[in-house]
Amino acid sequence: MTTKKFTIIGAGNGGKAMAAHLAIMGQEVCLYNRTFNHIEVIARRGGIELESPPGGPQGFGQVNKVTDDIQKALMDTEVIMVVVPSSGHSDVAQLVAPHLQDGQIIILHPGRTCGTIEFRAVLNRCGCEAQIVLAEAETFIYASRSEGPSQARIFRIKEAVPLAALPARDTPRVLEAIEHVYPQFIDGINVLQTGLNNMGAVFHPALTILNAGRIESTRGDFQFYVDGVTPSVAKVLETVDRERVTIASALGIRARTAMEWLQLAYNVRGETLYDAVQNQTGYFGINAPSTLQHRYISEDVPMSLVPIAALGERYGVSVNAINSIIRLGCILHSTDYWRKGRTLKKLGIRDLSVGELTRYVMEGEEAL
After folding, report:
1. Residues 49, 172 within the same domain
2. 174 shares its domain with 236
3. Cis omega before residue 167 (within 30°)?
């Protein structure tokens, strides 16, 4: 098998699983985390113990380098996997900007909505001159969790994950660079397509907020998608979803509806979104968050719903339902997520027409 040098930024559930899996596949792996205490045991043991269902990857993944020094982590590496919450993408971009080298590939896992556009804007503001390739996955390839300080478990590896580079003409280069370890990644067309097919934006914030009382009174002791998705809640989810799909259409993108996604991902159908969700047996047993201080609001509102709503308002699409969920999230967390989130000004695309935005994501800044 081809061997490449990978650096994983972030040693949470996903980062540890990815680092271990890549190491088991024979790749040269560096694991970076800003807090060394979090990776000290991995450094002492020299790797991560990985578990998965029968037939899946398992064993001890030997990690070549474990560090909290970003310069050392990026030195001479070929592919940089950013596996942190999307609310941290801007910070990571500032961190890596002075140390990037020509030819390196950076992939956000996942980008949520407009992740690579934000990352590129921050690199530009930092004066980064390295000629790098930047891409994002539509969703995270693993269902995984941390089992201990140097242990990880993979429950499932998705069979097909759309990926797109910014600009899209670089996507084949990214896919070629990682196909020896991740043949599951496929061409995601462009980063607007991957970002607007962000299903977490539809399900997570609205479902959490509309079940706020129940989450607080039970500490999440109910089935999130089964008990939490009542017919009335599903109507709100359908409206949020319809606004998202309409925004995509205004940008010339055919986004999957939530119903289509459920059919594609889980082979379930229903007359309504409520029926389809209730028919998804894979949701059985998944409990709600135990608190409202959860990434379903703190991450998905500013990094997913805010840019989706901003695109809608910029290009003439009604976003009343999405704005309502954003406003409720702001109230619940006493936080101005519009200010903290991915606004078009922060993304550097506020003044672009649809045609200019399309050229930017397809061809790059030189097309503007």
Report:
1. yes
2. no
3. yes
Contact 332, 212 (CB under 8 A): yes
In a domain, 361, yes or no: no
Question: Annotated catalytic residue: which of 21, 109, 204, 294?
Answer: 204
Q: CA 52 to CA 299: how far, in whole Å?
A: 28
Residues 9, 32 within the same domain: yes
Helices vs strands, H then E, count in the chain: 19, 12
For 322, list phi and psi in degrees, rounded to 5: -60, -45
Q: Which long-range contacts (CB under 8 A, 24 or more apart) does 275-284 make?
A: 277/225, 277/226, 277/229, 277/234, 278/226, 278/229, 280/225, 283/223, 283/224, 283/225, 283/226, 284/223, 284/226
Is 170 a catalytic site residue?
A: no
- Record the pTM: 0.94
Q: Which amino acid is at 339?
A: R
Residues 256 and 198: beta-carbon distance below 8 Å: no
Task: Identify whether the C-beta of residue 348 lies closer than 8 Å to the C-beta of residue 126.
Answer: no
pLDDT tens string 81-117:
999 999 999 999 999 999 999 999 999 999 999 999 9
204 is catalytic: yes
Looking up tokens 């519009």 gives: 338
Q: How many other C-beta atoms lie within 10 A of the C-beta of residue 157?
A: 18
- Encode pLDDT of 320-337 as tens digits: 999 999 999 999 999 999
Query: What tokens appear for 299 in the block?
Result: 């991450």
Query: Distance (Å, rounded) from C-alpha 51 to C-alpha 74?
Result: 28
